[in-house]
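Our platform keeps sequence and structure together, in a single record for each protein. Such a record has a labelled line for the sequence and another for the backbone structure tokens. This encoding replaces a full spatial description with a residue-level series of whole-number codes. Below, we set out a record of this kind in full and without editing:
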Amino acid sequence: MQDNSKGIFYVMTANDVENLPAPLLRRVDEVWYVELPNIEERAAIWAIQIKQLKRDATKFDLPALALATEGYSGAEIEKIAAQMMYVAFAARREMNTADAIALIATFMPISKTKAEEIEGRRRRLTGVAKHASAPGPVAAPSAPSAPSAPSAPSAPSAPSAPSAPKGRKIAEVSKLAAFKP
């Protein structure tokens, strides 16, 4: 804060910055925004959670788990990992990627149930806060692009590899392919 003493740092956290008064935010030297984890961070979170369950993370398809949990927080991934252990224990077998994927399909992340609130928070922090995991200030949310004109139907093609989730860059997916826990 502006009138802090030498060598003294104040650290504050808030899950809901909407209720913090603007004058308080202006007096803080730096505001950091912790965004939902990106694809590489989600793969690392999966590896950590699997290791905490005393299992070998290399036996899991971490890129697939990271892709499947787009929009999930670290806490939500932790919850799914714990449930994965229960599912495998009840079936009297070792847990696996398929268990996690099945659980993910039944789970609705907060980023979907509170999407409007999260976008509002991002807008409010645009130009005010810095990303905690990426350099630079929080950028304004991008406007949705206009729909493209429908194309002519094409002949059926051979099945392809799963594509990246909507809005995710293919470059991020290819970087993740080399991810080792």
